[in-house]
Amino acid sequence: MDDSKFGSEDSRGYWSPNERISYGPTFAWPPQPWAFLKWFFAFPGYLLPWNLLYAVFAVGIWVYLTPSLERFETPSLGLMALMLGRNLGLAVLVYGAWHLWLYVWRLQDTAFKYNRNWPSEDSAVFLFKNQTYDNMFWTLASGVPIWTAYELLLLWAYANGYASMINPAENPVGFVALFFLVPFVHEVGFYFAHRLLHWPPLYRVAHKLHHRNVNPGPWSGLSMHPIEHVIYFSSILIFFVVPAHPIHMINLASRPGLAPAQGHTGFDRVVLGDKSTWNTSYYAHYLHHRYHEVNYADGMVPLDKWFGSFHDGSPEADAAMKARRRKFRQANGTST
């Protein structure tokens, strides 16, 4: 498919979409109720596809892939291994599917790929000199075990009464409402954790490992230093103070655990046929990997706009970013 109908390629080979990055109307002022409703039910929009998908996914994981809560009162090594195996299987399924489609089978070649190059297979920057193998190692050897440890901690807390648990039969409104709260908790938690990881000491020690992926692929999403994984998944701890059901905890945990796959595909759209494409754009986060200092959030809550780090992909946003860099260098007495 000809991606020039949707965007353009610059002289360095970087492809960018014509459509500028924007936020939904949730926080628009004055309020725009009609625009909000259209966005809420649109595809893609707030509910579809990802928020509904992860809510349904959480219910399925709880019902079919999670042992009874009583078993977590005193978790055994066997139970811990079972939970780890469950999450390893989910990670391989989700990250592997994106990687197979776009990078192994290359069913659309480089159409809609932001950086036309493929991941490095001979670079000393990465373990095994291979970007994909390196990313898989950090994802499966560190990311998934730490994700699992957080889930085990919360399930133990629910089983022993250290975390308040709501009953969906007694409080159906609160139970459903929490599904709509989870994406915002994830977004806000991710933004502030991400800003913390860009604090120079933490960046040098931990976050730098993730940012080696200037040309990310699906497995880059959870390829992080263990210190970063501990910080990254910490939003799950909110359920020690917010009464919820383990399904909501799983819903929140599966987002940082699995959603980075589609957030790091490196492609703007998935080609589904000769004339059809699926808009899976995470261009905002791709720009973060390219420039490092913009778009720290996922884009639902306009935190980057509020804190002055938003880049919408336009030449004007480039100019504003360069002006911030000059100002920072001047303030720190470095060369402009």
From TrEMBL:
<dbReference type="GO" id="GO:0008610">
    <property type="term" value="P:lipid biosynthetic process"/>
</dbReference>
<dbReference type="Pfam" id="PF04116">
    <property type="entry name" value="FA_hydroxylase"/>
</dbReference>
<dbReference type="GO" id="GO:0016491">
    <property type="term" value="F:oxidoreductase activity"/>
</dbReference>
<feature type="domain" description="Fatty acid hydroxylase">
    <location>
        <begin position="180"/>
        <end position="309"/>
    </location>
</feature>
<dbReference type="GO" id="GO:0005506">
    <property type="term" value="F:iron ion binding"/>
</dbReference>
<keyword id="KW-0812">Transmembrane</keyword>
<feature type="transmembrane region" description="Helical">
    <location>
        <begin position="77"/>
        <end position="98"/>
    </location>
</feature>
<feature type="transmembrane region" description="Helical">
    <location>
        <begin position="229"/>
        <end position="247"/>
    </location>
</feature>
<dbReference type="GO" id="GO:0016020">
    <property type="term" value="C:membrane"/>
</dbReference>
<feature type="transmembrane region" description="Helical">
    <location>
        <begin position="39"/>
        <end position="65"/>
    </location>
</feature>
<keyword id="KW-1133">Transmembrane helix</keyword>
<feature type="transmembrane region" description="Helical">
    <location>
        <begin position="171"/>
        <end position="193"/>
    </location>
</feature>
<dbReference type="InterPro" id="IPR050307">
    <property type="entry name" value="Sterol_Desaturase_Related"/>
</dbReference>
<keyword id="KW-0472">Membrane</keyword>
<protein>
    <submittedName>
        <fullName>Sterol desaturase</fullName>
    </submittedName>
</protein>
<feature type="transmembrane region" description="Helical">
    <location>
        <begin position="136"/>
        <end position="159"/>
    </location>
</feature>
<dbReference type="InterPro" id="IPR006694">
    <property type="entry name" value="Fatty_acid_hydroxylase"/>
</dbReference>
